[in-house]
Amino acid sequence: MASITFKGNQVTLLGSEVKVGDKAPSFxxxxxxxxxxxxxxxxxxxxxxxxxxxxxxxxxxxxxRRFNEEASGLGNVKVLTISVDLPFAxxxxxxxxxxxxxxxxxxxxxxxxxxxxxVAIKELRLLARAVFVVDSNGTVTYAExxxxxxxxxxxxxxxxxxKKAE
Length: 166
Known about the structure:
By secondary structure, the protein is an alpha+beta fold.
């Protein structure tokens, strides 16, 4: 498993670490309208999955804004941001911040994504910061578990991986 800290304190991640070359595990999360969304819903597209603890924090806000800005230049790449924020809060945040190129999804209900991708923080019931790229065939082509949850991911590496994936 990836070793993650949150504000310098070691945390326990639930689930299994996902590695490059793995088939992306399935999951069910909620869209802002409370409808269920699965990985299979975007089959045939490259997915850049940005994972954040909460949109209402500085680094998560910046991460989501950055991927929103870059999304239009990524071609056939669907950008998903997943957190445990309630769908209503995600919708409010996106509206207030002009986020239109990223789909925000909530894993608050049962941590389906968090456990499937090994990013659910047991002690906090939040998701650890991570970025994954899943190609159009459902294979993970990029995986970054950010070692300190309050740090930024490697944006350039994630964007490059998304551009190269097919």
